[in-house]
Amino acid sequence: VEQRLAPNRQVVLRERPVGIPQAEHFEIVEAPVRGPGDGEIVVRVEFLSVDPAMRGWVNAAANYSEPVGLGEVMRSFAVGVVEDSRAAGLAAGDRVVGMFGWQEWATVPASAVSRVVREPDLPASLALGVLGLNGATAWFGLTEVARPRPGDTVVVSTAAGSVGSVVGQLARLAGCRTVGITSGPVKTSLCRDEFGYAAAVDYRSPAFESDLRAACPDGVDVYFDNTAGAISDAVLGLINTRARIAVCGTASVPTWDPPPTGPRVERYLLTKRARMEGFVYFDFEHRLAEAVSRLAPLVRTGALRYREDVLDGLESAPDAIAGLYRGENLGKRVIRLRAGGQG
Ligand SMILES: NC(=O)c1ccc[n+]([C@@H]2O[C@H](COP(=O)([O-])OP(=O)(O)OC[C@H]3O[C@@H](n4cnc5c(N)ncnc54)[C@H](OP(=O)(O)O)[C@@H]3O)[C@@H](O)[C@H]2O)c1
């Protein structure tokens, strides 16, 4: 009860950004924790997620969901423990992951829950990353959209990041030769040494295009695209006949209003009879448990490695998305809240 009376600190959207949301677009406010209504649960949040997609959730243009309203709690995935439940099938003590928003306590309908976390032997934060949005995006994007075959050359952008690192490792486990694209010497080394890429290329280097060509002597069969922009322009010039391009993200494009211009893709697709297909995690969310059942055993044996970039306290949230677009994260970015929700 005492905990229930603790104020709930929340990060709300103060101003709608054009492009990448910055710290000044958010504000931290306090509100009382509300008890659960019928069909609702109260979650004490342990970790908040920070995802590049959150840029799209606050922008009005080129989006796949209703943008977060001004004054509303910032939409986000989070993991935490049910403190009180009036929802069938969810009990106090259950650890759950879902759309709980950037706040310390979340009173939400049961439908906000993506999954009850049933891996007590693994860190809770993994439910947001390698066993959550990022892992499932990599799993379904690779196996159902990109569909690599053994021996394929698979190129991955944001290769050291939370989605990209899983894609690269899964493709290698499927018998492919993997080439990662990322920024700087630390992340290119990480790609080769930790995530098993056969080669890793720095897109900020002036020699990027020739480095990429040298890294793909047999051309590119699969491109898992997390960036769009000039990086993709370089990859498209190297695709093989019947190449498959899974469009997962557009991290290199600061705004779609106005849209960027660049080389047209149609001629590459036509001459190479290639397939380019976008997808969104939410199309597959109902199959999250299936992805976790494939990924968790690989994490346990060490066959699938992951990195986390852990920030502390709710205060670190407002600047956290901008930080992703500065490329400062080394692995899945999460925010740890102090036990009891006092952040
Ligand atoms: N389709 C879906 O449903 C879905 C779901 C989850 C994620 N995604 C997408 O997957 C991509 C990776 O997401 P994540 O969660 O795994 O994040 P992440 O890779 O862990 O972090 C984002 C990374 O984006 C890269 N980046 C930032 N600005 C860039 C720029 N201007 N040009 C090129 N790269 C830039 C940085 O890595 P570098 O140092 O390598 O530049 C940064 O570390 C994003 O595009 C995201 O939107 C899509």
Throw out a few tags for this protein.
343 residues, alpha/beta, 7-stranded mixed β-sheet, 10 helices, 15 strands, 27% strand, binds NADP nicotinamide-adenine-dinucleotide phosphate
Polypeptide structure, described:
The protein has 343 residues and is of the alpha/beta class. It has 10 helices and 15 strands. Strands 3, 4, 5, 6, 7, 14 and 15 form a 7-stranded mixed β-sheet that branches. Helix 3 (133-146) crosses helix 9 (288-301). The protein is globular. The two termini are 18 Å apart. The structure holds NADP nicotinamide-adenine-dinucleotide phosphate. NADP nicotinamide-adenine-dinucleotide phosphate binds next to helix 3, helix 4 and helix 10.
Residue share in helix: 25-40%
Strand content: 25-35%
Name the overall outline: globular
Structural class comes to: alpha/beta
What radius of gyration results from the CA coordinates? Answer: 20 Å
Total strand segments: 15
Runs with pLDDT <50, length 5+? Answer: none
Supply the number of helical segments. 10
How much is the average pLDDT? 95
Largest sheet: 7 strands, mixed
Calculate the terminal CA-CA distance, rounded to whole Å: 18 Å
The set of bound ligands, ions and cofactors reads: NADP nicotinamide-adenine-dinucleotide phosphate
Element order: H for helix, E for strand: HEEEHEEEEHEHEHEHEHEHEHEHE
Write a brief caption for the model:
This protein is α/β, with parallel strands linked by helices and 343 residues long. It has ten helices and 15 strands. The longest helix has 14 residues, at 133-146.
